[in-house]
Amino acid sequence: MDQRTLTATATDDRTAAPERAAIEVTTVGEGESATTARRTARDRAETVRTALRGADVDTARVSTVELTVEDSTTTFEADQSAPYRAVERLRVECPPEAVTDLVVLATDAGGTVPNVTFELGDEVRRKLEGEALAGAVERAREQAERMAAAHDLALGGVRSMTTVDDCFGTSSIVDDALATGAEADLSPEPITVSESVEVVYELVDE
To answer: What's residue 1's pLDDT?
Structure first.
């Protein structure tokens, strides 16, 4: 006779305050040549860098992660004011509490902020993942025990267990929330890490 089994699924989560933030800042340059557009974008990016260096944030780090130049005449957009357009994208890493001040400085200096990401540190994220996974396993067993008892059965051994990562410990503020500039509330919410499990138990007579 085939072994009787019961499958239960459950999810649990843990939350913590973010430990770091990453601000994306872009600057745009246009010109009659690719060189001019690139130089303009870089000059504007340097203006943003200078403004951020003036902030009272010792641990802020600014790096260029991308510089692109496109020929506007190939985009078929009638409102392009110059043949070439360059975009430099900066990544500003900082403590979460410094985000609001740095966003204001960057936008006042001529940059655009399309995205702010809040993250957990690796050690904290792994700790929360472990706690959430243990909680999900416990919930799955409690659910399975209730289901088995309803049929006058009990749980035997675990036949198999699979996990699904539901969240990697980040959150973002994008576009619409940032459009209001200095009036935007950039205070991060606690970040949730979730884990889900599917457990197959053997069933035995009570």
So the answer is: 47
For residue 164, the model assigns a pLDDT of: 76
Write the DSSP string, 13-48: EEEE---EEEEEEEEEEEESSHHHHHHHHHHHHHHH
Q: Does the pLDDT at position 169 exceed 90?
A: no
**Sheet with 84-94, side-by-side order of all strands:** 61-71, 84-94, 20-31, 112-119, 170-174
- What would the two tokens of residue 80 be? 């392009």
Q: In this structure, are residues 89 and 45 in contact, taking their beta carbons and an 8 Å threshold?
A: no
133 CA to centre of own chain:
20
Angle ∠(37,66,75) on CA atoms, nearest 5: 50
Distance, in Å, from the CA atom of 155 to the CA atom of 7, rounded to the nearest integer, reads 11
As a whole number of angstroms, the distance between CA 187 and CA 191 comes to 12
**pLDDT at position 195:** 94
